[in-house]
Amino acid sequence: MHEKTRLMVASSGVAFAVLLVFMNLGFLESLSKAAALTYEQLNAEVFLVSPQTTDISGTDTFPRERLYQAAGIEGVDRVMPVYIGFQQWRNLETRQSRAMFIYAINPEDPVFLLPELQLSENQAALRRPDTVLMDQLSRPEYGPQKIGLTTELNRRKVKIGGLFSFGGGFSADGTLIMSDQNFRRFFDPRPLSEIDLGLIKLEVGADTSQVVEKLQAILPKDVLVLTREQIGTREGDYWISATSTGFYFGLGVVVSLVVGTVIVYQILYTDISNHLLQYATLKAMGYGSYYLFTIVIQEAVILAVLGYIPGFALSLGLYELTFRATSIPIGMDLERATFVLILSVVMCVVSGLVSVQKVIAADPAEVF
After folding, report:
1. What is each CA distance from 337 to 227, 264, 292, in whole angstroms?
2. I want to staple 101 with a disulfide (CB 3.0 to 4.6 A). Which of 172, 192, 288, 334 is the partner?
3. Model pTM?
């Protein structure tokens, strides 16, 4: 508290490092959350995908007959095919085209749990030719999102028949839902006999693990049988460990800690240099290295706590801003808050351990 300005500057440096760690950890966790949220909006307990499928935006097709085979298993209530692809959507205002993520379903199948899709007007719109439902959480770059608006999809006229709220996460900036017949028109010559995702709705009371075991026993190896939790975890792991996005955020956490450690080291080293006479006096009076060591470590812990508080507060605001701007599922939780606090203390203590060597090595006779 002797030099309040220096204390504020030092705390700001730590807060900056804490903020970087919070943001990178938040984005890293949102990768897996976004994957899980996608499947939580699908009306199924078991999913069929190709072994070559990496994530919801990188699917590989498999025969629709696999769904028909699954339909005969005890405990299966309903099977539903889903077709997935990308097409160029034209912004009517800018005349620019941008890739749009597309789900195609049989209008008779209750594929999604989204409340907007249960509305009769959206059900009717889904059945009309060259008509789609648009995610109103799509990026503004796609242009106006108005019911009745006509634009182009893959250079073919298309009409917005309804709106829903879904969010594409990291897989897509914009999302459409259309009927399988419209999918056939826009993706010609792709046949409907090859699907991207198979949904299996179980009967009430059916044991999911037993149904999965039966499906794995009878279905060929050209499909994987996964529960909702398994497919969400599989996709989250892919984004974190197999994509550059996961690598960047993971590296960001490491770089943030290194930056924070260097900042705190410079702060403590400068402080020790400025007060070397006082430290040398204490040593001359008989205080041991352990006592001096504890003083520097206490400074490090105080800096960690003082820097953590504003870093935590700023990250809350940036989390909210990011969610509103991108609809990415990012938010604070107790586990991350505690983990970053521990990291902050460790980061500062490590810096203290390095900088305290100057005090330990100081000889009062040489200093004076």
Report:
1. 30, 20, 31
2. 172
3. 0.82
